[in-house]
């Protein structure tokens, strides 16, 4: 049995007060012994990648936890990307989640990294010490015309040299299993880590109900509809739903669980406490 990883995603705060809170959150997350913590990066402003670099360095060097820096590159050129990668390397952070990034209305992407595969090839050629992860979409990327196109592009992207894939959030495990099967058929053998978003707040519940393009199983929409105005019940049911998803995924041999924490340590802690033996027993078997 191979080890199933358990990891977190955090995002850099944009205010001083939030930065203090994040330090406390991180102290709690570190106590849960994650395999790694990934740090998101917005592409709304070229300078914001600095916050990601700084935070990824903090996680790696001050907290002693492996960190992955997200890097959406569509609006960057080669020189900017090289500067960011040099800074990361100086900090000892050599794990990257390579991304194209979302399109921003009214802003023209640069030509250097039109697709993330261009970034992956560039990093391999110029920064060979980096381990590269990339994003994948069990329910296809919204810009893709078809499942076939999406998988073909994913195959091309992983062939550029991707060490692991992390999925977009999903609420229907069956869609993940279908996707995994398509990857196998396409000879995409990169480990796939499942991104899980626990829905525990009213705002999240309403956003998912009103705008999500993900498949929402009946049992899940029933929870959101019934409890979105009842914070305690929504939290209890949302956590139970995420735990149920995780138990099933680990049982079905997923490579890892990446929790979209939304910088909320309490949720991460609750989920870890409920599921830790699944991961720790895997670790013991792996070490034996
Ligand atoms: P790509 O793999 O390049 O794919 C984008 C689209 O182009 C797809 O439809 C694909 O099928 C198509 N495509 C790919 N290659 C080709 C090709 N050669 N020819 C034609 N079409 C092609 N965004 C952020 O801004 N910051 C973050 O920190 C961030 N973190 C994320 C973490 C995860 C785990 C995930 C799943 C997404 C994250 N995103 C983030 C969102 C991501 O940037 C968007 O989904 C973006 O629209 C696509 O990025 P990508 O790297 O997957 O692009």
From TrEMBL:
Keyword Oxidoreductase assigned to the entry: answer is yes
Q: Catalysed reaction(s)?
A: (6S)-5-methyl-5,6,7,8-tetrahydrofolate + NAD(+) = (6R)-5,10-methylene-5,6,7,8-tetrahydrofolate + NADH + H(+)
Pathway the protein acts in: Amino-acid biosynthesis; L-methionine biosynthesis via de novo pathway; One-carbon metabolism; tetrahydrofolate interconversion
Q: A GO CC term?
A: cytosol
Task: Tell me its EC number(s), please.
Answer: 1.5.1.54
The record's InterPro entries line, in alphabetical order, gives:
FAD-linked_oxidoreductase-like (IPR029041), Mehydrof_redctse-like (IPR003171), MTHF_reductase_bac (IPR004620)
Give UniProt keywords alphabetically.
Amino-acid biosynthesis, FAD, Flavoprotein, Methionine biosynthesis, NAD, Oxidoreductase
Required cofactors, per record? FAD
Recorded GO MF terms: FAD binding; methylenetetrahydrofolate reductase (NADH) activity
Q: Spell out the PANTHER family in the cross-references.
A: METHYLENETETRAHYDROFOLATE REDUCTASE (PTHR45754), METHYLENETETRAHYDROFOLATE REDUCTASE (NADPH) (PTHR45754:SF3)
Q: Which family does it belong to?
A: Belongs to the methylenetetrahydrofolate reductase family.
What protein name does the entry list? Methylenetetrahydrofolate reductase
